[in-house]
Design brief:
Shape: globular
Structural class: mainly beta
CATH architecture of the largest domain: Beta Barrel
Number of strands: 14
Domain Acyl-CoA thioesterase-like N-terminal HotDog: 29-114
Order of helices and strands: HEEEEHEEEEEEHHEHEEE
Largest sheet: 12 strands, antiparallel
Distance between the termini: 51 Å
CATH topology of the largest domain: Porin
Number of domains: 2
Radius of gyration: 19 Å
Domain Acyl-CoA thioesterase-like C-terminal: 140-274
Protein name: Thioesterase family protein
Number of helices: 5
Length: 277
């Protein structure tokens, strides 16, 4: 019998027997990130709730996740609601809640998802694939620091823009290029693609070479691939590129792109991140 992948175990949601689109889950220590789950895992859970809904139309084309507060260790609930369904698109709102000390459900994550029934059309990509050596020629990152378990769930091979080894304020750019995939091979799907879109460390660390507190407030990911393109990737590596765009008064935005090894652009994302001096 094949063991369940750690990512699928972390994504596991139990549907409510009485409320459509209502699910129950439990945080996973395998994807922990200091004070709560890795943000990419939270995005994956949001998307999983939509993909599990019996009224789902089509496949995801966009997801926005707003991290209102950290998800605490333990049980949580997810509500996915299709607020509008058109001929080819469907619009969703999603909330993740946890019970407080008084047993009242408090929202810690809000999100929106758009799914669509795609049709064959003309296609092109105006973003060039970054130059990169094959994954086998790039050294894999070592074990992550204590309290950041999620890093160990991925095979990351930085090409450029490594995490600074000296926090001396000497940074002069914010671009990272990296190969990545699940450490234990797993076929790519929409939930894992959403998760990997949030795998880039805060650009302010690289731009400043200064280890300041920072955390994602909101992330939007756009999916440019369907099930056929994801199936073609299989368990292969993704080539990622991330860069900061504007750092100003405690917040900055960073953009990221993910390509397949064959050079197919699969997803793009933008996120707003807070930082402190």
């Amino acid at each position: 019998m094949t063991a369940t992948h750690t990512f699928d175990s972390a994504l596991a949601l139990k549907p409510s027997p009485v409320r459509a689109g209502h699910y129950f889950g439990v945080t996973s220590p395998d994807y922990w990130n200091m004070v709560g789950p890795f943000g990419g895992m939270t995005a994956g859970i949001v998307l999983q709730a939509v993909l599990s809904h019996p009224e789902l139309l089509g496949a995801p084309i966009a997801i926005t996740v707003n991290y209102a507060s950290a998800i605490e260790k333990g049980a949580f609930e997810v509500q996915a609601t299709p607020v509008r369904t058109n001929r080819s698109t469907q619009h969703w709102t999603i909330h993740i809640t946890q019970a407080d000390a008084n047993g009242m459900q408090q929202v810690n994550t809000t999100a929106t998802v758009v799914t669509a029934a795609r049709r064959e059309t003309w296609r092109a990509s105006d973003i060039p694939v970054p130059q990169a050596p094959p994954p086998a020629e790039v050294a894999r990152m070592g074990i992550g620091p204590s309290g950041v378990a999620w890093l160990n769930q991925y095979d990351m091979r930085p090409i450029s823009g490594h995490v600074p080894t000296k926090w001396d304020g000497s940074g002069d750019h914010s671009e990272t290029r990296i190969w990545l995939r699940d450490a234990v091979p797993r076929a790519l799907d929409f939930a894992s693609l959403a998760s990997m879109s949030d795998m880039f460390y805060p650009r302010v660390w690289l731009r400043r070479a200064k280890h300041v507190p920072a955390g994602t407030v909101s992330i939007t990911t756009y999916f440019h691939a369907g099930n056929t393109e994801l199936a073609a990737v299989g368990t292969g590596y993704l080539l990622g590129r991330a860069t900061g765009q504007r750092f100003h008064n405690g917040f900055f935005d960073q953009a990221a792109q993910l390509w397949s090894e064959a050079g197919e652009l699969l997803a793009t994302s933008n996120q707003i991140v807070y930082f402190k001096e």
